[in-house]
Design brief:
This protein is mainly alpha-helical. It has helices at 2-11, 15-45, 58-61, 71-75. The protein is built from four helices and no strands. It starts with a helix and ends in a 5-residue tail after the last helix.
Length: 80
């Protein structure tokens, strides 16, 4: 009889078990939020070494590229 009662107590859902699960979830959420905030702050502090470049759209392929100098700068010897 004692063994059957011990098994039912182990599988019963109690207020204490629910409260403990809620506390664990709250700690997990806070920990995750702190990590995300720290990562965002570090990314904002660290300058990007390279700027992201998008490939030219099909309409830009025939004309100037995205990084080309304007024609006024080319006429003035803006090239290197």
């Amino acid at each position: 009889m004692l063994n059957a009662e011990a098994q039912t107590l182990a599988t019963d859902l109690t207020v204490g078990k629910i409260y403990a699960a809620m506390m664990i979830m709250e700690y997990y959420r806070q920990s995750k939020a702190k990590k995300l905030q720290a990562m965002r702050e570090e990314q904002n502090r660290t300058p990007l070494m390279f700027q992201r470049m998008e490939p030219p759209s099909p309409s830009q392929e025939g004309g100037q590229g995205q990084n080309a100098l304007p024609s006024s700068q080319l006429d003035q010897g803006g090239g290197m």
